[in-house]
Amino acid sequence: MFTALSLGLFSVAFAQDDLINKVKDNGGESSEGYKFETIVDIEATPVKDQGRSGTCWSYATTSFVESEMIRMGKEPVDISEMFTVRMVYLDKAEKYVRLHGYLNFGQGGALPDVMHVLKKYGAVPQEVYEGLDYGTEKNNHGELESILKAQLEQVVKNPNKTLTKSWKVAFEATLDAYLGAYPETFKWNGKTYTPRSFADEVVGVKADDYVQITSFTHQPMFSPVMIQVPDNWTWGLSYNVPVNSMHNVVDAALTEGYSVGWACDVSEKGFSLKNGLAIVPEKKYSDMTKEERAEMFSAPKTEMKITQESRQDGYDNYTTTDDHGMQITGMVKDQNGSEYYMVKNSWGERENDNRSGYIYASKAFFDYKTISVLMHKDALPKDVKKKLSL
User: What is the pLDDT of residues 349-366, one digit of tens each?
Assistant: First the structure.
């Protein structure tokens, strides 16, 4: 994951519509009990909709790249998420075959996957590559994933006792049929580009300038580590820091005008799409009364105290998994002074009590449920960069 991007890790293993169904009704009735004041609000491009596809990792980091263009003084481009998805499918397939099928293959990925494609292949505008050649108005990758996986399974069975080169041609033909052919050249704003030249000349974001940060105690602190989740198919590295350092570097980045890519778990009841909030109630949901459950999002309440040990327990026991990627674009505080991250989602312009298409995530939720964050290395505080030898 964050392989999401290649540095480190991130992934979404479920079809996105299933994930949305799990969280859309959390928290009971919407309420007016929260009053927020904006602290930081970094400019971002419009909210998009990943549809019925597990490609949040591409939407999250692509949005992050678009915000980086704005930060760099460039006119942002609506970058094609599906071009990135296509190239990741190709590279992941090759690795899957080389490992005789012992690699997770599916729609999920990591935040750094976008940087992997940006560096290796480039980028194209959305208008050039929509990735909808199978006839729907929104992404729906269930059939595509099934066919691609079936092809690879037959390849690794090796019925000819030796592999031919034709399997790659057949695999790419499937991608052509569903997502569209590879755009060798295209015209944009009156000029002809290749994906490589468009990334270099127009997007201008250098993948090597970005790092992924994580926080787990089963690996050494202040060292590059591989986040051990199924969708970190590139085996990319992230920098491991204590959890308080992880949210401190995010705060510092936002304060300096840098947005942040975020890989996290959203499967628990504290993540409410309806209410536009992500919190960690002090009492476990299973221990709440019916009335307490109905009042979870009625107004700010005391949250669970998150420690390095409790977040590690969540990872170790599978209650914290790498199931979603989003972009942190700012901070707000409630009427009690508690701070939350302003998080841009990719489930469309869904209305809630706060900001359409966004979620406000408490610091407790961030500390508890974060898998990793992606940011420009210059956004790191000097003391952290020194400890990480960056």
Answer: 988 888 999 999 999 999
What does the alpha-carbon distance between residue 296 and residue 87 come to, in Å, rounded to a whole number?
42
Residue 237 lies in a domain: yes
- Alpha helices in 256-362, H assignment, sequence order: 290-294, 308-316
- Domain containing 145 equals 16-387
Q: Is 147 helix (H, G, I), strand (E, B) or coil?
A: helix
**What DSSP character marks residue 329?**
E
Could you give the 3-state DSSP secondary structure of residue 2? strand
Q: How many domains does the chain have?
A: 1
Judged against a pLDDT cut of 80, whether residue 12 lies above it is answered with: no
CA–CA separation, 246 vs 388, rounded Å? 13
Q: Is 10 inside any structural domain?
A: no
User: Residue 128 falls within a domain, yes or no?
Assistant: yes
Dist. CA 353–CA 332, nearest whole Å:
14
The reply to whether 5 falls in a domain is no
264-292: pLDDT as tens digits: 999 999 999 999 999 999 999 999 999 99
Closest CA to 77 of 194, 189, 211: 189
Name the region of 154 (left: φ>0; alpha: ψ -120 to 50; beta: rest). Answer: alpha
Please report, for the domain that includes residue 94, its CATH number.
3.90.70.10
CA torsion angle 305 311 312 316 (round to 10): 120
Task: Return d(Cα 199, Cα 116) in angstroms, integer.
Answer: 12
What is the residue-wise DSSP string for 16-61?
HHHHHHHHTTTTSS--S----EEEEE---PPP-B--BSS-HHHHHH
pTM for the full model?
A: 0.92
Average pLDDT over residues 103-129: 97
